[in-house]
């Protein structure tokens, strides 16, 4: 695959990423955008220091755009698991160029990754839910804990419509595991609204979205979906849908 074919937002394969920008849809997006900006301003004012966990998915690019355009004092960070698709790294670079900024990137502790691989094998996450979650803990959960240390709130791009594990997603809750407030400003947004914002504002996004990857994680754990499948069906597709979380968003309260 050539470098030019991986430039974010150049694909044409997935009609879901190119919604019809009707006046009604744009009006809905405008109203919800106003509410999100108000919420982000409240978070920045009342829960400082606050951080936004940017996984570089479509929803996260919406929040990145709003935080940076409005110059809100909210730290933006990403987790590099070491096994992300090339397109995700391309988007990280494109985002920094587009907004003339540097995102803070956290990496797994190398000794934990080495121990996991030596003990279980390079692709042991396919063997069981327990080993998959252990891999997620090393590559995602522990780095997230470091990223959130000292913060009063963290922000995510999760939406209620994304999967069976997120249908009751609140806009605000207390994250007992990390000891801080957690906000999901796009909880009530639809997929069409997310893409209408991206298209109307012409912001970069992961090129894999145009290849029927609505939810993108590590390369070995992500596949494209078929028509009619759940949005997160391509994540850990070999597992039961009820187990499809990596440990970042488990409510232990």
What layout of secondary structure does this protein have?
Blueprint (H helix, E strand, L loop, with lengths): L22 H24 L3 E4 L4 H12 L5 E5 L6 H14 L4 E3 L3 H11 L8 H20 L4 E3 L16 E4 L4 E4 L7 H11 L52
Parallel strand pairs: 1-2, 1-4, 2-3, 4-6
Antiparallel strand pairs: 5-6
Helix pairs in contact: 1-6, 2-6, 4-5
What does this 3D model show about the protein?
The protein has 253 residues and is α/β, with parallel strands linked by helices. It has six helices and six strands, in the order αβαβαβααβββα. It has a single domain, classed as Rossmann fold (3-Layer(aba) Sandwich). Helices cover 36% and strands 9% of the residues. Residues 1-7 have low confidence and may be disordered.
Helix content: 25-40%
Number of strands: 6
**Rg calculated over all Cα atoms:** 18 Å
At CATH level 2, the architecture is 3-Layer(aba) Sandwich
- Spell out the CATH superfamily: HUPs
Q: Structural class, from helix and strand content?
A: alpha/beta
Distance between the termini: 45 Å
CATH class: Alpha Beta
Q: Which spans have pLDDT < 50 for at least 5 consecutive residues? A: 1-7
Count of domain modules = 1
Strand content: 5-15%
Brief summary:
The protein is α/β, with parallel strands linked by helices. It has helices spanning 23-46, 58-69, 86-99, 110-120, 129-148, 191-201; strands spanning 50-53, 75-79, 104-106, 153-155, 172-175, 180-183. It is globular.
């Amino acid at each position: 695959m050539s470098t030019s074919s991986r430039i974010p937002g150049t694909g044409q394969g997935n009609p879901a990423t190119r919604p019809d920008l009707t006046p009604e849809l744009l009006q809905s997006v405008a109203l919800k955008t106003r509410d999100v900006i108000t919420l982000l301003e409240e978070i920045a004012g009342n829960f400082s220091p606050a951080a936004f966990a940017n996984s570089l998915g479509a929803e996260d690019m919406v929040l990145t755009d709003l935080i940076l355009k409005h110059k809100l004092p909210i730290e933006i960070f990403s987790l590099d698991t070491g096994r992300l698709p090339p397109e995700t790294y391309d988007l990280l670079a494109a985002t920094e160029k587009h907004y003339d900024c540097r995102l803070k990137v956290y990496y797994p502790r190398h000794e934990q990754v080495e121990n996991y691989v030596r003990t279980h094998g390079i692709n042991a996450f396919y063997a069981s839910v327990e080993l998959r979650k252990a891999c997620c803990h090393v590559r995602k959960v522990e780095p997230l804990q470091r990223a959130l240390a000292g913060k009063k709130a963290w922000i995510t791009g999760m939406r209620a419509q994304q999967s069976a594990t997120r249908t009751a997603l609140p806009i605000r809750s207390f994250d007992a595991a990390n000891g801080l407030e957690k906000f999901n400003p796009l909880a009530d947004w639809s997929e069409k609204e997310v893409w209408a914002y991206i298209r109307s504002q012409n912001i970069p996004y992961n090129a894999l979205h145009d290849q029927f990857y609505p939810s993108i994680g590590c390369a070995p754990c992500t596949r494209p979906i078929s028509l009619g499948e759940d949005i997160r069906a391509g994540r850990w597709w070999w597992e039961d849908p009820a187990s499809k979380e990596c440990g970042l968003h488990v409510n232990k309260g």
